[in-house]
Amino acid sequence: MSWIIGVDVGGTFTDFCARNNNTGETIIHKRPSTPNDPAIAILKGINELTEKFSDKKQKILRLAHGTTVATNSLLQRKGGKLALITTKGFRDLLEIGRQVRPSVYDLQIDSPPPLIERSHRFEINERIDFNGNIIKQISKKDLFNLELQIKKLKKIDGIAICLLFAFLNPVNELKIKKILSKKFPNLPISLSSEVQPEFREYERFSTTTINAYLQPEVGKYMNNLKEGIFKIDPSIEVNIFQSSGGLTTVSSASNFPVRMALSGPAAGVVGASETTRKSKFKDIITLDMGGTSTDVCLIQNGKAELSNLRDISGFRIRLPMIDINTVGAGGGSIAYVENDGLLKVGPISAGAVPGPACYNLGGLRPTVSDANLILGRLPETLVGGGMTLNKKNAVNSIKTISKKLKLTIEEAALGIIGIVNSNMTRAIRGVSVERGHDPRLFSLMPFGGAGGLHAVDIARELSIKNILVPRSPGILCAEGLLLSNLQETFVKTCRTSLEENFNIVERSLKEIKERAIKWFKNEGKSDGKRSLLLFLDMRYVGQNYELSINLGDILNKKINLKKSDLKSLFFENHKKNYGHFDPYAEIEVVNLRLRAISELKSKQPKLKTLNDKPKFNSIVDVWFDNKKPRKTKVFERSTLPPDFTINEPSIIVQEDATTLIPPDCTLIVDNKLNLIIET
């Protein structure tokens, strides 16, 4: 018998979900993350997990890994120190950007400083035109001077090379990389023609810079992980989860860490989508609240949308990603009183080390977890009894805030909870109301270790009537990894009118299809189904943004791109997104995209239904408002059978998460053992 393991590394905890690929037996496990080297927690956790196997001789077949390491590095600006090489005249493009002001009425907002300081950006005298022709060759003298400039830098961790129109002709980028790789063999180098080979210079520059920013740490981490797994068992296949919703190889993740910018959160959406398909709720909004950040996503008809353009913490990424909105709000988010006398929460997190004050690991600053513990909402033991919380430390940490604001400890804790809830509510409005979706028509699905503690408050703020809590909310990201497949995306820019030079589109499609077939042979090997999805980015001439038109699976089909069919699909999508279309305006194709998917077989989990009577562990005092605490029963979730109903304030505890049921709510256990909360 063989096992597959999903591992999700968060800023605070590392989650494991193991499933026997023959029987469907499922085992979950959690342990504190090790931020200095996340691989340590993974390797220790695997050894601890295997001890739970019924047969110690059973082998691990595959390990699928998702991580928020890249996300948290961006949120907290903890990446490498870089040098940038670009075309003469484009040194300041990263700062100039698109001149978009999202908060035009906020007089105090500051744009995040570029990831590369100006003194570390170097220009080189080269030029490629808009057709990919070389206008200006790079001289040997310029290359030599470039070497000297980089050599003078005291310490850098990587290099980003972004030249004008390199996506059409990468020859000059490759020439610079060849020279610098010889002179600086230990420095990772990111090329825009490899990271993001499509038009729009600023987005390409930004994405490549972020890739280089993340590459030193992520690359080191991937190497440590691979070596550690090899020592456990060299036959274990290791795959890394991408923001686009599929798995890739360790080497690809090391070279293109920007593809992992939303790795962990995206895996949670995969797990949430699978849960919705097995429930009566098909339209949901996810609330994935971990220790460092919260991620929200809108799922319709069991599917989440992909976006090719995202801003994460003010940094623009042009790559396919599951459309997730991330905010620096988690159980470890630090609360503080600003100089203006206002209480603020996050985005800085206490992380796993030292963690919240209540973890008793040296943390002194007040966090959301400390507030929940003081209010009685969080039990004093976590991870199935593997972790004991210190309430005295939590009280001491929040005293500083309560004194400054002249509040009681409980009032200060309620204030912290209220602010972090507002931050998450605002994130949900970003994926719903601001995009024309009414959140009242959706159900809320909280997961992550802390999602269930805040779900009802957030749902009520948004007038959401139903909450769906999955069986294992704390490890849903890890479970989503078990359901994921190998995936790779190929893109080629071929801007051309639908009426003119359409043969360019056909030639480009043939070219990238050959690349996709090669990927299937080399990296996309599996014993499951294969598919090759074709998307055309199309727009009216003069528009700034494209619509991605899905043309379906073309792997085993003869490609026949009829202009009339493409027009009809474009009109249909344009009307759906903008409410109208112009049948007479000129249409152009901008990009071709292929999504290669190689399915991995995964056994469905066994559903354990217990006949035991529901039992509650204790009765505790819980503060739901600032009036007085209420007596609240604490139930063990594993004892709640299908159709069980609760109509009183309750706390539902399990190994991986805690769910809070405030007054005036009804909880029902469905036949799949999900918790349904009616607000």
- Helices and strands: which structural class? alpha+beta
The name CATH uses for the topology of the domain at 79-206 is Rossmann fold
For the termini, the CA-CA separation is: 44 Å
Portion in beta strands: 25-35%
- The tally of helices reads 16
User: What's the rounded overall pLDDT mean?
Assistant: 90
Task: Provide the low-confidence segments as ranges.
Answer: none
User: How would a textbook summarize the main sheet?
Assistant: 6 strands, mixed
* Strand neighbour order, sheet with most strands: 3-2-1-4-11-12
CATH architecture identity of the domain at 79-206: 3-Layer(aba) Sandwich
Determine the fraction of residues in helical runs and give it as a percent range. Answer: 25-40%
How big is the Rg?
Answer: 26 Å
Find the count of extended strands (DSSP E, 2+ residues). 37
Q: What is the CATH C level class of the domain at 79-206, in words? A: Alpha Beta
Overall form: globular
Q: What's the assembly state of these chains?
A: single chain
Describe the overall structure.
With 679 residues, the chain is of the alpha+beta class. Among the domains are: 79-206, Rossmann fold; 333-419, no CATH class; 486-598, Dna Ligase, domain 1 (2-Layer Sandwich). It is 30% helix and 28% strand. Strands 3-2-1-4-11-12 form a six-stranded mixed β-sheet. Strands 13, 14, 15, 20 and 25 form a five-stranded mixed β-sheet that branches. Helix 11 crosses helix 12. The longest helix has 32 residues, at 201-232.
